Amino acid sequence: MSKIETIVQTLEVKIDKILNQFGSLKDENSALKREIQELKSQNKNQLQLLQEKQTEFDSLKIASSMLGSNEDKRASKLKINALIKEINDCIASLSD
Question: What are the domain boundaries of the chain?
Answer without folding.
Answer: 2-70
